[in-house]
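Subject: Glucosylceramidase structure
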Amino acid sequence: MYWSTPVRARSLRALNIAVICTVLLYSIVALFFSSPQVHAAGETVNVWLTSGDLSTHLAPQANLTFANGNGSGNVINVNENQTYQQMDGFGASLTDSSAWLVYNKMSSSQRSTLMNNLFNSSSGIGLNFLRQPIGASDLTRPAPAVGEYSYDDMPAGQTDPSLANFSISHDNAYIIPVLKQALQINPSIKIMGTPWSPPGWMKSSGSMEGGTLNASAYSAYANYFVKYVQAYQAQGLPIYAITPQNEPLYVPNGYPGMSFPADQQTNFIKNNLGPAFAQNGITTKILGYDHNWDQTGYPTTILSDSTANSYTAGTAWHCYGGSVDAQTTVHNSYPNKDTWETECSGGAWENSNGFPNTMSLLIGVVRNWGKSVVRWGMVLDPNGQPNLGTGAACSTCRGVVSVDQNNGNVTYNGDYYGLGQASKFVTPGAYHIDSSAGSNGIQDVAFKNPDGTKVLVAYNSGSSSQSFSVQWGGESFAYTLPAGAAATFKWSGTQSGGGSGAPVGKTIWLRATNNNNYVSTRIDQTNSPLNASATQVQAWEEFDVIDAGNGQIALLAHANNDYVSARTDQSNTPLDAMVNQLQGWEKFTWLPQSDGTVALQSQANGNYVSARTDQSNTPLDANVTQIQGWEKFTWGQV
């Protein structure tokens, strides 16, 4: 049966109207229920607090909420678009003493609780970095139970250059079982190994105490590390990194140690250890130095040797001398090499519960390029036992936790809660991101996790409560932190505004990657253009990074307080720093590169700033249309 034409027309019109109404209805519903496309304020901030007296520890606080607008007073500006080093983790050392206490002085239920509190990020603080002695340290049970030992001990007067007697059997009793339990709880744990001494027969002293490494033992010592890595790998314990010697500039009395000067360690890495790892397919990182902040010349000696540099991942540091900014000093000289803090013991000398020093260590180390924050003994008893008990062996050290040898009860010290303010919330692979330093005793450091969540750790080192604001793009919140307390803030979302990715507000230098010289304003000559021919940083190599709006920056030369300009009003004119107002040709886009360098793109013409090293002493310009070697720069903070 066929409809007549008028009937069909009316039916089609009705159908069309119905379809249109349905589409409109779904569109209206979608407007109400779809995710907003514009960033809005109101992100929830979770807060955890530890008080200076530990009466409150890692305790959740009332949530905060970001609000539109700028903070006031003491402002901590967090910029997630400026990233620094990736974090490896936080931890301490399961020494012979520590592992023995955990394995032999605790019931299985006590041990399980402690291990989860140490290494589980949900029920505990999620520690994920372990620095393990290779053989005995001063935190080893005393003789005759244990005493000094290596993995290849020989009778006096005998040697073993082929390492036929190498064995980690000592560790099988309790160290390896405890490590396996830790790794089972937290598979992301990274283990590094460090010897306090090679086997005595390798040394001039014939003992694990004192002396130097015999020239004839360099090859055997390199293979000693190879066998150690292989033996632990066979136990399911991969070794992430090693250092050739603990504290090579200190020869202790009464416990294992060895003098290993910088030139000798350099030769050992480049001629023996590096090649031995390469020949055996070992990818374990080699970290140089492993000693105090007061001797930057030691790591510089290693890294300045091109061959040793190629085998060395970076530098390991201790906290017992100098200041933490030594890490930045070496980083600025070798920005493609990484930084680890690997030992900083708590103890009676601190005259505190360990919380203040742990918080200052954590914040200072990370703000100076540290990928790890590591205390010393993970577990000791309340009296700092057991230790070798001889000579200078530490009898006043404090563990991250204390275990009573009589009943297995645990005291969680300030070191534990200090590390936990970061380790519980910052996951491996997180980036340290930019945050302005606080004032009036407020110290802070910020991170961005792989899942995009932000973590800010703030510590009040002052003697009175302090209020501050946290600025994140165009939003902020306010908080008051009691004296001696630390708070961790965690939130999700994406930063809106204020994010060029550049170190805005900082004074920096730029160094051309292809000739390793510094960009200079050369104010010693009138109206001279910028070039990359300076070999040291002085005033005319320093630039203030200014927020130019819309995700762009300007560079203000310290030497004459003028802006760096691309001067696109003239053809092919080089960059100079002679302009006293900020317009289009003084604005640049900061472009971080995958290799850690940065490129600068001129807003005025869309071209890249170039050091143009294909010509001798050629000024910088912004006339290159692609990024290659001479358009890449390393940078550092002055």
